[in-house]
Amino acid sequence: MFSTKICCIGAGYVGGPTMAMIANKCSDVRVEVVDINAERIAAWNSDQLPVYEPGLDEIVAQARGINLFFSTDVESAIREADIIFVSVNTPTKTYGLGANRAADLRFVESVARSIAEHAGGPKIIVEKSTIPVRTAEAIKSILETSGSGHAHQVLSNPEFLAEGTAVADLENPDRILIGGETTPEGQAAIERLANVYGEWVPQERIIRTNLWSSELAKLVANAFLAQRISSINSISALCEATEADVDEVANAIGTDSRIGPKFLKASVGFGGSCFQKDVLNLVYLCGHFGLPEVAEYWESVITMNQWQKRRFADAVVQAFFNTVSNKRLAVLGFAFKKDTNDTRETPAIDVCKRLLEEQASLAIYDPKVETDKIFRDLDANDDDERLIVCASAQEAVQGANAILVITEWDEFKDLDFETLFESMVKPAWVFDGRNLLDHDKLRAIGFKVRAIGKPCE
Ligand code: UDX
Ligand code: ADP
Hints:
Helix content is about 45%, strand content about 15%. By secondary structure, it is α/β, with parallel strands linked by helices. Strand 12, helix 16 and strand 13 (about 430) form a beta-alpha-beta unit.
């Protein structure tokens, strides 16, 4: 009754939403998402999905129990499927060879071993996790050496969705990239997967390449995006020194159609699970292949980002004559960007840790991030007197010396700043790490304001 059975190993930020979209668009495909984390699977089967994404609840509700299933039975899902997506986490290695640079492939490797063991027939295996170039080869070699001789095909099909806009990105992607072997079998596997996406993505947007081009293109796309942000952030420092306005500069250069307007928003620094990891991966690869100059070039993207986060925290300390000891700082936003509850590599972690080191008291509010996640990210306990997590922006700001905007949540734009000002210790400061607020209006109320790439007071 179903023409194709798909299984996806890994029910995270990528696997869950992507599979929900495939199930919605392809009624004759049965999709089973499996994970070893039983709690996560239970959440996918409940009304409280483990991932917050606008529009996701609806598409999950429409397909779940019909052609979309979530389970912990990895083995039987592998056995049943024609196409197996691998969407497990690939963090940066924290130990041994390539520490802090290379991707840690132990999750991918363990999945490859499970597939080899339980496949029971030839499968199309699709790498969806961001993984370094030539991982497909590693997966293939595990399948060949530990399997029972089935002729599997390995494809690379990187995901380009951004968190917070995942559903829209999946529904209307700029492109779908599928890399495979150049053999007739490899080409046939590519077409089988292209047919799934072809249910809703126009064929001209489905790019077919060899395996390694596809794997490398994913890393390079993220490296170029991260580089744009580090570039504009570097210019933000120059703007502050020269009284140019970084938003005006970004707008002026962005109208050049060769440069384009997107990803030129200066900020407290980029975060998220992909940018730093992928740039570091690229750096590692360049080093591995004897290209130290290229490695150094890309590494500077990360160095600039670290400096930008540090610069923001230091500006807060400097504004209080080099001591924030016992000052209450209201931190608005903790997620790495708006419309997500994800805090991986969020600039909030570095900024808050630095300010805690300076003995500030932090009152943090984020509309979606869970309290215990904030404590965990900051290596803090709930009995730490200098850290509280608040249920509203008003509560965080009450009695504070400064407001720090770290995430660009829309609701922060609509806060009643007159009332907030009344509730604060004077002089009341705003440090806008996202250039989100109306600074002239804030100054008219009486706030002292510092923002990214804007003339300082
Ligand atoms: C990114 C890529 O966009 C996506 O294609 C890939 O699949 C995964 O990595 P994501 O990390 O979800 O997606 O978010 P993105 O919107 O790219 O933002 C990353 C970080 O850059 C955020 O911290 C964001 O606030 C910051 N950013 C983005 C800026 O500081 N300025 C900008 O102009 C754009
Ligand atoms: P991403 O952002 O790439 O989707 P996540 O960390 O959100 O990454 O999700 C990856 C998921 O993969 C996690 O839920 C994790 O439990 C799951 N996972 C890791 N290893 C395995 C495995 N061997 N089998 C099944 N699931 C796995």
